Amino acid sequence: MVVREGMDRQGIGMTSQRTRERLLERLFEEGVRNLRVLEAMRRTPRHLFVDEALAHRAYEDTALPIGHNQTISQPYIVARMTELLLGGGPLDKVMEVGTGSGYQTAILAQVVERVFSVERIHPLQERAKAVLKDINIRNVVFRHADGNWGWPQYGPYDAILVAAAPAEVPKELLNQLADGGRLVIPVGDKEQFLTLVIREGDNFIHQQVEPVRFVPLLAGAIRS
Ligand code: SAH
C-alpha cells in the first residue's frame, strides 16, 4: 500500500510533522511496540478521516466526533487493538465490525492481506470508502449490514476486530472465527473491557486486556 505523496504533504502543512512524530512517540511510550503497526500509523493521514474543522486535532491521541453520534477511535486504541490482533502471526482474512471513519480499516489494511469491513450506518460507510480509495488502499471490501451477524459468506476469518461494544460477545462472531483465530472486542455495558478471545477448536479463551470506552454495538442497519 502506498499513501499518495501529495496527500501526505498536504496534511503536513495543516499539522506539523513534529505533531505527528509526537503522536508516534506517545504510542511507543504507552507500550505499543509492533513496528508494522507504528509504521502504518506514521504514514496514514488521519486528518483525512475527520471533518476539516477538526483536522488540526487529528494527530492528538484522542477520539473525535465523525457525525451520526459516532467517533473516530483514539490512535492508542487503534494501535493496541491492531497489535493484539497480530499477536499470533501474519493474517490473511480479517473482518472488522464498525468501519466508522475508516481509519482503523486503513491501518488494518496495511498489516494484513484482506479486510472485510461491516458498518451499519450507510453514509459513514460511503465516506470511509471514498477516503480509502483516495489514499489508494485497495484490499478492503465493505458491507452495509448489522455486524452482530458478521459476514458469513467469506468466513471463517483469521481475526475479527470489533470497534463498538456489545454487552456480550455476539455468538455469530465466534462462529465465524477460524481455529486459532483471534477476536479483539470491547465488551460491557457501563464498564467495558477490551477483550481478546482466542479460538482453540470448540473452546474460546477469553482474556480481559484493559478498561476502554467505546460507543455501543447497536442492532440493525440504517440508510441515513
Ligand atoms: N474504528 C472506527 C470506530 C468508529 S465508532 C473509527 O476509528 O472510525 C464505531 C462504529 O461502529 C460506528 O461507525 C457505528 O456505526 C458502528 N456500529 C455500531 N454497531 C454496529 C453494528 N451492529 N454493525 C456494524 N457497525 C456498527
Automatic annotation (TrEMBL):
Subcellular location: Cytoplasm
Pfam families assigned to the protein according to its UniProt record, in alphabetical order: PCMT
EC number: 2.1.1.77
Span of the signal peptide: none
PROSITE patterns tied to this protein: PCMT (PS01279)
Top EC class, one word: transferase
PANTHER family with a match to the protein in the record: PROTEIN-L-ISOASPARTATE O-METHYLTRANSFERASE (PTHR11579), PROTEIN-L-ISOASPARTATE(D-ASPARTATE) O-METHYLTRANSFERASE (PTHR11579:SF0)
NCBIfam families, per the entry: pimt, PRK00312.1
Protein name: Protein-L-isoaspartate O-methyltransferase
Phylogenetic classification of the source organism: Bacteria, Pseudomonadati, Pseudomonadota, Gammaproteobacteria, Pseudomonadales
